[in-house]
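Help wanted!
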Amino acid sequence: MRTTMGIIGIMGSGEDASVKDKQIAFELGSQLARKNFIVLCGGRNSGVMKSAIDGVASEQGISVGILPGSDKSEAAQNITVPIITGMGNARNNINVLSSDVVIAIGNTPGTLSEMALTIKNKKPLIALNQSIESIALLKSMNYNKLVIVETLSDVMIQLNEWLQ
Amino acid sequence: MRTTMGIIGIMGSGEDASVKDKQIAFELGSQLARKNFIVLCGGRNSGVMKSAIDGVASEQGISVGILPGSDKSEAAQNITVPIITGMGNARNNINVLSSDVVIAIGNTPGTLSEMALTIKNKKPLIALNQSIESIALLKSMNYNKLVIVETLSDVMIQLNEWLQ
Amino acid sequence: MRTTMGIIGIMGSGEDASVKDKQIAFELGSQLARKNFIVLCGGRNSGVMKSAIDGVASEQGISVGILPGSDKSEAAQNITVPIITGMGNARNNINVLSSDVVIAIGNTPGTLSEMALTIKNKKPLIALNQSIESIALLKSMNYNKLVIVETLSDVMIQLNEWLQ
Amino acid sequence: MRTTMGIIGIMGSGEDASVKDKQIAFELGSQLARKNFIVLCGGRNSGVMKSAIDGVASEQGISVGILPGSDKSEAAQNITVPIITGMGNARNNINVLSSDVVIAIGNTPGTLSEMALTIKNKKPLIALNQSIESIALLKSMNYNKLVIVETLSDVMIQLNEWLQ
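Answered by r_m:
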């Protein structure tokens, strides 16, 4: 096994994810895997979760999915490590605590809860593809480990800065 | 014991609560207890949680606190039922699921996570004392069980409408 | 509201509870309520949980149910405070942490997990209506806050000793 | 990355593990990794958890640790994927749900809770290095997915039978 560089969380919507959200998630999963990061997400076979896992798989990387349900049936097909919590959305806090850096794509309710829990738990947060209203609220929180970015290369630059 | 009318959650900040947040929480706790609601909150001896519990106690009502830590030491003094989860902020999801209606006071990170989880779990949400940015984001989510109000009497009117 | 004396957990089986288990649970719920204890259990409308809650209700006491599912539909009818965890059997640890003393009736798998978690969390445990094999295993654990009893009056005597 | 064959849980004590428990855990971790299983355990830097992870690492396998605390400081040094739950012993249910088969070494209280939760969740269970009292209790439960074995080769034979 290749030495891993840390665990990066990619948080985003399932059924409500936009095409752009999913493209970002796939590309991010693949770039992170290429750099030997483990990618952690919500693990379901839908939206940002599925796309991130597919991106990791395209580079033979390791993906971890923290699943809300009580069996493996909802897991994305290409996942490496499905973790079955059986605890519904309470698992969002595990997503955040287990990630060295949390990357949030979009701001649907589940993802918003994960951004808020990231700040509450004082973990580093990179926000991507946010609405104008979400950007305004995030900025108003004056959180010093938050970066709002627009491109994938900005994400990779920020990760480099934080993790080396 | 008096017959209870349901469980109302009051969510808000601990150490970061404003004076106004705490006044609202106390008054809301006392009005809800007078109407025989059980009041549920995060249970800690600080901020909105402590004030809500003190308001309930002033009317000999029943308060329930869902505590993040693993023993009773952090519980508010006047609490009726301290529930010890030992699961940190993952307990925020229990706060939301256990409340017939969630009332959020302010929008610090923990409370924001609870508003987001309320929407994610499709439960009714009343938001009070929100910043301009939080109001804009909440409105942008187009959630049909969300009401943003300014006064306590608006809260009581909305509860009446939803719960009878 | 009457002043409460503490929270006593009554743990036992749902569908697999014996007639004797349920009789003990009802009587224990009623005796504890009469002495102004809050009674905490798994909250479901079945077996030891339902019987304990019915016993509490027969004395107008306060019962708390820590439910495994994600809505109120499975709760016992006479419950005072249903807590909705949405976290399945992981909620067994909350049952234990929230109880000043845990009383276990019988030793089906869920109850056995709660006895084990009580010992792991170093909380006081009273075991009732155990099989010969369960008694032998419990004794072999050399746990100094464990009492194995045969009658309800033994339970009340032990609670008195521990809680005053 | 090599294709994984499934996730096998190795449950056992931390500080209270015997020398024999730890030897079994190391050997089992290494044999499972050699056969391309992912090994899941409680993740701490102690006892059966540390030994299982060291065994996996000796074969360049993938180990997953479901940690009870809220940061990585307690994780075993050689772990591949530390999952930070922040939920104490409630995480034992995640250990069980996430494992295709649970292997329990010894019967200290935490491990006993995991064996009981495995049966409660109807997952396959292999018990190793149990006391006489634990064997008697386990047998009395008449659980058809439980096998009590004495040697590592018995474990591997049973896994083969269940997983192919």
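OP: Thanks! One thing I noticed: The two ends of chain A are 21 Å apart (CA to CA).
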